[in-house]
Amino acid sequence: DGGITQSPKYLFRKEGQNVTLSCEQNLNHDAMYWYRQDPGQGLRLIYYSQIVNDFQKGDIAEGYSVSREKKESFPLTVTSAQKNPTAFYLCASSPGLLLAKNIQYFGAGTRLSVL
Amino acid sequence: KQEVTQIPAALSVPEGENLVLNCSFTDSAIYNLQWFRQDPGKGLTSLLLIQSSQREQTSGRLNASLDKSSGRSTLYIAASQPGDSATYLCAVGGDTGTASKLTFGTGTRLQVTL
For residues A95 and A101, what is the distance between their CA atoms, to the nearest angstrom? Predict the structure, then answer.
C-alpha cells in the first residue's frame, strides 16, 4: 500500500523537552515537506527537502529541525526553543519540486500537545 | 508576500444542491493552484490541480476554474451529498523555483445536510 505514514498520531511534550515526529513515504518521491496547522489558520510550511541530504527553511522554521538521510524519511524535531508547539503537524511528499504536475500527497498528521 | 483568502469560512447546504467555493490570491504570478479536501482530524486529499496556463479542471462532480489575472479560483460541486461534508482548502504554488512552496487559504468548512 503506497502512501505516507506519520507517527505517532498523538504526542505530548513536557517543558524543555525535544520531541521527534516521524514521516515515512514509499511513493519514491524526491520532495518532502512539513506543515503546521493551527485552528482557523491555513497550513504553514516549516521545512522542505528536494533531495536526500538537502533541506530548506520554510516560513516558520524557528524552533524546529529536520534531517533527510534517506529518500523515504523526513523526521521533524520540535525543540525546546519552540515556545508554542501545540498544533497539528502534517507531512507531505511530491514527485519533485519543480515538476509541472506536482501534486502533494499528505499523511494523516500528528497532533502535538504540551503537558 | 502571497496571501490566499477563502470565502465563505463555513457553508451549510441541503443535499442535492449545487454550490461554489471561492478562493482569491494577491499575487497572480503563480505556478499552479490546488484544491484539497480535509476531513476532521485527518490529512489532506488533493482534489484538483490547475496549471497556471489552464482555465479549468474537472473530476466527477467537481469543477475548478482559474482566472489568474484577477487572482481568483472557484470550486464548483454539483449535486452535493452528505459525504461531501469536509473542509476544502485551496493552495497556490509559487512562481518558478518555488513551485511546490504552497500557500494555503484558511479553508471553507462545508456541511451538506439531509
Answer: 9
